[in-house]
Amino acid sequence: MIDYVLDASALLALVNRETAAEKVAEVLPQSMMSSVSVSECVAVLSMIGMPHDEIEDMLFDLVPHVEDFTVEQALEAAYLRKITKSKGLSLGDRACIALGKTSGKIVITADKIWDSIDCGVKIKVIR
Fold first, then answer.
1. What is the rounded distance in angstroms from the CA atom of residue 25 to the CA atom of residue 17?
2. Helix, strand, coil in percent for the chain, rounding step 5
3. Which residue from 85, 119, 93, 71 is spatially nearest to 5, judged by alpha carbons?
4. Fewest beta carbons less than 10 Å away: which of 12, 53, 106, 123?
5. In 3-state terms, what secondary structure has residue 2?
6. Contacts of residue 60, Cβ cutoff 8 Å, sequence gap at least 6
7. Sheet containing 123-125, strands listed edge to edge, beginning at the edge strand earlier in sequence
8. ∠ at Cα 74 (69, 79), nearest 5°?
9. In sequence order, what DSSP letters do the residues of 69-105 get, joined into one string?
10. What is the pLDDT along the chain (127 residues), one digit of tens a residue?
11. How far apart are the C-alpha atoms of 43 and 46, rounded to whole Å?
12. 1, burial (CB in 10 Å: exposed 0-12, middle 13-18, buried 19+)
């Protein structure tokens, strides 16, 4: 059963063995990610020089379910811009929150600023 939506920052914390990686590992089997968040992870790992085949093998082994970015999520992400602009959230961040909102799942992130966002979605900051 899927209970969580992972933000790119959460998955990267796990991959890079950063603080709170174990918290991500605990929820990983019950998690999904937006295809936009997966794209963010791939971009970061590619920039640090990880080979493309390794990136794809690792991500798709780790992430049990990747949800395509739908029109409904695109609209939600756009509407979130107004209330998140002052916090500096990217389209990827808003896509993650939009998936949490449209699916009714808890969003997991490593970005502390998300704690101060009131957007009708339960957000759990891991560090």
1. 10
2. 60, 15, 25
3. 93
4. 53
5. coil
6. 66
7. 66-67, 31-34, 4-6, 106-109, 123-125
8. 150
9. --HHHHHHHHHHHHHHGGGT--HHHHHHHHHHHHHTP
10. 999 999 999 999 999 999 899 999 999 999 999 999 999 999 999 999 999 999 999 998 999 899 999 999 999 999 999 999 999 999 999 999 999 999 999 999 999 999 999 999 999 999 9
11. 5
12. exposed
Q: What would the two tokens of residue 89 be?
A: 């959230």
Tokens matching residue 26:
């605990």
pTM (2 d.p.): 0.94
3-class secondary structure, 123:
strand
The structure tokens 């929150």 sit at: 97
Find the angle CA(119)-CA(123)-CA(127) to the nearest 5 degrees.
135
pLDDT of amino acid 64: 86
